[in-house]
Design goal:
207 residues; single chain; rod-shaped; binds zinc ion; 3 helices; six-stranded antiparallel beta sheet; 10 strands; SH3 type barrels; alpha+beta
């Protein structure tokens, strides 16, 4: 996905500066102003405002002026113009925050689910493992008793964590029978050696 970042100006107020003379032609009540708010956007979505600009034009002589061209009195009048809040300019930031909250929530939820799953192993579940020697592999749960879990380990190891899912083929579970007490299984999880549990309907990953 391509992200485009930039700034845009949004016209937030137009009006005329009362009792102020044009610096050029000297006629009073001829200065029109347009105030713009500048905001940062990312791919069309506004993130936050970064400042203001103003255009000033004389109705009479059509000259364009900068803020600095006005008398101090005129500058103050312009500064005192009330601008409506532009909350929409923060919409991208608000969206980002909502996403963050959502993902943080999901992460915590996922972690809890995994802890529950470890406590209630099911026959047929596949566990992705990280061994202390740095290799990755899987085991499948064959049988569960009140205090133990009987598994068949995968015949193969992987070097990389992302390769390990590919090892999960029926023919790869032949004769490496290993049993764990439920306590040992919990210990493996707490040591970070269980990376993922695949149940027949869903899978959960540890972080
Ligand atoms: Zn003028």
């Amino acid at each position: 996905m391509l992200f485009l970042i930039g700034t845009k100006d949004s016209n937030v107020k137009n009006g005329s500066i009362k009792n102020e003379k044009c610096p050029k032609c000297g006629i009073e009540n001829t200065l029109n102003f347009s105030i713009f708010r500048r905001y940062v956007f990312i791919t069309m979505i506004p993130l936050f405002p970064v400042g203001k600009t103003v255009n000033i034009e004389c109705k009479s002589c059509k000259n364009i002026f900068y803020y600095e061209d006005l008398t101090l009195d005129g500058q103050e009048k312009l500064r005192n113009e009330k601008l409506e809040s532009s909350i929409w300019m923060f919409s991208g930031t608000i969206l980002l925050l909502l996403f963050l909250v959502y993902f943080a929530n999901n992460y915590i939820q996922n972690k809890d689910d995994l802890t529950i799953l470890i406590k209630e192993p099911t026959v047929g579940d596949v566990y992705n493992l990280k061994f202390s020697n740095g290799y990755y592999s899987t085991f499948k749960i064959d049988k569960i008793t009140s205090d133990s879990v009987f598994t068949t380990h995968n015949d193969f190891d992987a070097y990389m964590p992302y390769e390990v899912d590919d090892l999960d083929k029926t023919e790869n579970y032949s004769n490496k029978k290993v049993s764990y007490s439920k306590k040992e299984l919990m210990q493996l999880y707490q040591n970070g050696e269980i990376l993922k549990i695949r149940h027949k309907n869903y899978s959960l990953e540890a972080e």
